[in-house]
Amino acid sequence: MQCALYDAGRCRSCQWITQPIPEQLSAKTADLKNLLADFPVEEWCAPVSGPEQGFRNKAKMVVSGSVEKPLLGMLHRDGTPEDLCDCPLYPASFAPVFAALKPFIARAGLTPYNVARKRGELKYI
Q: Which PANTHER family match (predicted)?
């Protein structure tokens, strides 16, 4: 999967992104077999793989930025925000929802929560 945020070093949420899907499935199957080594398994079914992107059916986005210009995404360890509205894990049907939420937050005057100041009204959407 190609991800501009990952390629730019701005997101590291997808720990397996650089590994091809067949290798991921092999590694995960080996881990599962290792975890269940004490239990007799008569037959292991082949792993099933879904789509490489656009498969998430929900999003929990940190709301940051300002009332006038909210960001939806995550916070880095140092507290800097990263907008994830263009994350390829989300289906295309999420884009208009994200696009509608940002101006709604501004119109409603909802202050994004600021972790450092421990102030604000809206932490997550």
A: RNA M5U METHYLTRANSFERASE, TRNA (URACIL(54)-C(5))-METHYLTRANSFERASE
Residue 33 in 3-state DSSP? helix
**What's the mean per-residue pLDDT of the chain?**
95
End-to-end CA distance of the chain, in Å?
A: 26
Query: CB neighbours of 96 closer than 8 A, spacing ≥ 6?
Result: none
Contact 65, 81 (CB under 8 A): yes
pLDDT per residue over 65-111, tens digit each?
Answer: 999 999 999 999 999 999 999 999 999 999 999 999 999 999 999 99
Radius of gyration of the chain, Cα coordinates, nearest whole angstrom:
19
Look up residue 61 and give its amino acid. Answer: M
- CA–CA distances in Å: residue 102 to residues 5, 69, 83, 105: 20, 7, 11, 5
Burial class (CB in 10 A: 0-12, 13-18, 19+), 112: buried
Short-list 55, 45, 44, 80, CA closest to 65: 80
